[in-house]
Amino acid sequence: xxxxxxxxxxxxxxxxxxxxxxxxxxxxxxxxxxxxxxxxxxxxxxxxxxxxxxxxxxxxxxxxxxxxxxxxxxxxxxxxxxxxxxxxxxxxxxxxxxxxxxxxxxxxxxxxxxxxxxxxxxxxxxxxxxxxxxxxxxxxxxxxxxxxxxxxxxxxxxxxxxxxxxxxxxxxxxxxxxxxxxxxxxxxxxxxxxxxxxxxxxxxxxxxxxxxxxxxxxxxxxxxxxxxxxxxxxxxxxxxxxxxxxxxxxxxxxxxxxxxxxxxxxxxxxxxxxxxxxxxxxxxxxxxxxxxxxxxxxxxxxxxxxxxxxxxxxxxxxxxxxxxxxxxxxxxxxxxxxxxxxxxxxxxxxxxxxxxxxxxxxxxxxxxxxxxxxxxxxxxxxxxxxxxxxxxxxxxxxxxxxxxxxxxxxxxxxxxxxxxxxxxxxxxxxxxxxxxxxxxxxxxxxxxxxxxxxxxxxxxxxxxxxxxxxxxxxxxxxxxxxxxxxxxxxxxxxxxxxxxxxxxxxxxxxxxxxxxxxxxxxxxxxxxxxxxxxxxxxxxx
Length: 541
Hints:
EC 2.5.1.16; PABS; single chain; polyamine biosynthesis; spermidine synthase activity; seven-stranded mixed beta sheet; Rossmann fold; 11 strands
């Protein structure tokens, strides 16, 4: 039985042990608190996923980024739960302050991370400072604030109507978990495709501030002093104003960030369903560069050297039927089509948006010599792994022009199982060539690729060519590799030979037989021994 209490003087909060003086019935008030918990949980999970997604886009290796963000955030939530005990006597004011801070920090986190990435350069060697520290800092702060929510909401529910602790915890956690489900589904299916990373985070912060402020000011305003109510109003209006101003300026911010990252000649910037695609240059005097998720994929200054080294050594031999895995830009297909005797080229690309760009952008279409318009080229938009599982055709040559294995989404495409599937579609004596990433910068990764191909029963010869001349590449040049590493393999009984000067070979621009052999010897000197093959269940990149 709840004992009656003496009303507090006007303008001062009541004794905390007494029931809250609500403007609605207790049942309605309790429902509104649980609804607020639902919305706040949804917003909190969106902040988590936004940090994971943005870090994965900018840094790569989504498993590592998810592990760092989520582990730091869960740890911080525990600390926040302990810290909430100091706010329990002022749960309403504390909850309102926490939600205003969470809305500001979470809503602005994407812009801050993207800004630091754009204006400080590559993240590669900055684990101890710069953007990586900012990522951990945001994870820590957001986790601390989220961790204080549930204890404070528990106090608010008990202020409305005292009930057994188990029932109150069950109700609150149910609202919290269902809200997390809604936030987790809304992020990839609504916020990310419709609003993008930056605007989606800003909108989430706005909703967070509105709900937190409205819940306290609407239900528990009598628990606050007049000064506290005014401070709460000013804080929430300020937070919402900052988020709204950022949303208005977000397009200008993105343009400025892109110019900082890619230079002033950005011609195309779009997000497909797979990745962010940026084209720079492609005008007279400006070499064309293609960036995918911030990584230089095609450098117009030296792209010919990369694609010549990728394709032509594998074409020494029968090559009537060729399979290109990746190569959505059409440049590998261009090199394949230079060889006489090619009757069919099957290109399997994951991103239809890049394929459309390769067909329709005048500069990129000119660079790939309109390869996709050749009747011998047949395009398929699919996951390369899944396509090979059901493939029945036999190919003389398979060209694997895929993203680096260090990117988590590509790891399965550099596994022993994947190369086993590739071997099944090769003819007797057919050749496979794989781009394995830079040799000098990441020898462990490259030689793991070579080891994995051998584990699939293929005979290999590794080789490399020097990377692009960074002169003229602009701000994106920092993300260009120092060299490119390749592995040529065959299902036959002998080690494949490196040859680009056969009697029917086309005239090449920069790649020579002598240079190729010298680079292969240089690669062999960098071999890392004792590595094990990478598999689907035990990736080693």
